[in-house]
Structures are given as C-alpha cells and as structure tokens.
C-alpha cells in the first residue's frame, strides 16, 4: 500500500505565512513571490490534505478549525527550524528601540559600547511596538513596559521614566513663566506617539491638567525636542532624551522632572539568549540605563 502524498515545504511555508499575515498579498510580499504563487500553493495543499484550510472574504482570510491547527503546528516547526539555523550560523545582533531613544540616548553612547566590546557586531533598527522575534530578526529590544511582550518573553526591568516640562532658556525668559499655573495660555508642544504626556506629567505632580490648555502636536519626540530647542514652546518629554541638553544649558526644565507612569524594559529573543555577545549587550544596556 502506497503512502499518501506529502505536501511540499513551499506549500506549507506559504500557508503558514498567510495564516501569520492574514492576506495572500502580505504573505506574497513576505516570501518575495507572486500572489498567484501563494494561491496555487494553498490550493495544492488543500488538495493533498483533502481539507479546506481557509476561506477568503473582503477583509482577508479566515482559518478553518483544521487550518488553525495546522498553522499552529507549522508556526512552531518553522520557528524551530530558524532557531536551529541561527544556532549554527550566528548573525550580528540586532537591537531595536524607538527612533528617539536611538538618536538621543543610544547613538551618543555607541562609541563607548564599541570601545568595551570591539568585536561585537551590532545592527540597529527603529521600532516601538510589538515584535515577532522569529519573523523580524531582532535580538534585543528596548520597549515601554505598557507594550505587551511576545509570548514566552520575560521583560527585564531597565528604568523608571522621569518626565518634565522643558524649553529653551530664551523662551523661558520671554514667557514670564515662574510657576506651573503660568503655563495656561502658553504654547505647549506634544508628540503624537505620546499624546497624553502632559496629562501624565500633571498627574505625576498630583495636579489636574487644565482643560484650557491647547497642544500643538509633532510626529515624534525628536521633532518635539528640536521644536523646544528653537524656542517654539514648552514640551513634555522623558528626561533621558534631553539629559545632554539639560546639562549643557541648551534646554531647561524650570520645574524639574518627576517620575512618570512609564517604565522601560528589555526583551531578549529566545534565539539570541544563549549567545555571549547578547549577555555583553544586555549587561551594557542595563548598566547604562542605571547610570541615568
């Protein structure tokens, strides 16, 4: 009696990617193949297995119960394959953090890292949201504690975030602001990536943010900080992003900084956890954060 035909690895990979991404188009882009190739692989796989694995609608695809079971098993299998490959062919470490942390905290310290670990190969990648370690190739990620970590990842605490109202010295002198209540009617700057920063600052001071305050928004913290430096108004930012400017006098925090609600944590990819250079990188990040 002949054994039943086995599905091809390409067909299984195509189906697992569709299940992961949710659409044929995104799966095709991820695998660098055509939409038609994905469709043919799925059709062939369903013919070989004799079951319907997914249905398509206007919003994408929906897994059948059989498809969901197969996708879960394939996800584990492909992750194991990737982990096995990485174990025998280590790649340079990839550190992911927000663009603002990279520009204002990491890059100024990078020479020190290279001095301490001259043979370490480190790639940098910007990002501030969730991560799929198996798909994205990231080794270590700095994230806010409020962001859910990937399944099975235990976040390593790094630092509590301190926040403050900052501006240029010239703007402060011209504004006449001497106490927090004087901020009413002044130009307050905020970022779309942290729209509630001012409210969090007032709350940390055990004060209520006045409803009359009007905010002007910028896309990212690094644009917000630059706007404050050139005298466009008061900005509410994490201290770690402006520590150098505060020390040099390019910016001032007239009311000091206060511990805010956010905390920074570190995520480590399972594939990178056993590497010696990962341990060196993690130790360096933890120590640098503790020195803030």
UniProtKB/TrEMBL annotation:
Protein name: LysR family transcriptional regulator
Keyword DNA damage: no
One Pfam family per UniProt: LysR_substrate
PROSITE patterns according to UniProt: HTH_LYSR
Record's keyword terms, sorted: DNA-binding, Transcription, Transcription regulation
GO BP of this protein: DNA-templated transcription
GO molecular function: DNA-binding transcription factor activity; sequence-specific DNA binding
Keyword DNA-binding: yes
Highest classification ranks of the organism: Bacteria, Pseudomonadati, Pseudomonadota, Gammaproteobacteria, Pseudomonadales
InterPro entries: LysR-type_TF_proteobact-type, LysR_HTH_N, LysR_subst-bd, WH-like_DNA-bd_sf, WH_DNA-bd_sf
Family: Belongs to the LysR transcriptional regulatory family.
Residue span(s) of domain HTH lysR-type: 7-64
Organism of provenance: Pseudomonas fluorescens
């Amino acid at each position: 009696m002949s054994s039943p035909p086995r599905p091809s690895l390409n067909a299984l990979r195509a189906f697992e990617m569709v299940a992961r991404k949710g659409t044929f188009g995104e799966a095709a882009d991820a695998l660098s193949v055509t939409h038609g190739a994905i469709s043919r692989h799925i059709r062939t796989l369903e013919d070989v297995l004799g079951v319907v694995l997914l249905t398509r609608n206007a919003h994408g695809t929906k897994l059948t119960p059989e498809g969901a079971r197969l996708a879960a098993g394939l996800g584990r299998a492909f992750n194991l394959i990737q982990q096995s490959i990485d174990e025998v062919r280590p790649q340079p470490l990839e550190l992911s953090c927000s663009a603002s942390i990279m520009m204002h905290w990491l890059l100024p310290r990078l020479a020190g890292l290279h001095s301490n670990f001259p043979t370490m190969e480190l790639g940098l990648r910007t990002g501030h949201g969730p991560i799929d370690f198996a798909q994205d190739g990231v080794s270590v990620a700095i994230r806010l504690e409020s962001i859910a970590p990937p399944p099975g990842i235990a976040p390593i605490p790094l630092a509590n975030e301190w926040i403050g109202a900052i501006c240029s010295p010239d703007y402060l002198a011209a504004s006449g602001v001497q106490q927090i209540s004087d901020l009413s009617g002044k130009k307050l700057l905020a970022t779309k990536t942290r729209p509630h920063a001012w409210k969090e600052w007032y709350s940390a001071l055990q004060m209520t943010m006045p409803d009359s305050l009007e905010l002007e928004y910028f896309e990212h913290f690094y644009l917000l900080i630059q706007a404050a430096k050139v005298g466009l108004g008061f900005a509410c930012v994490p201290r770690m992003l402006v520590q150098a400017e505060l020390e040099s006098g390019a910016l001032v925090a007239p009311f000091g900084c206060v511990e805010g609600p956010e905390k920074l944590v570190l995520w480590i990819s399972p594939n990178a956890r056993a590497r010696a250079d990962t341990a060196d990188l993690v130790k360096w990040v933890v120590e640098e954060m503790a020195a803030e």
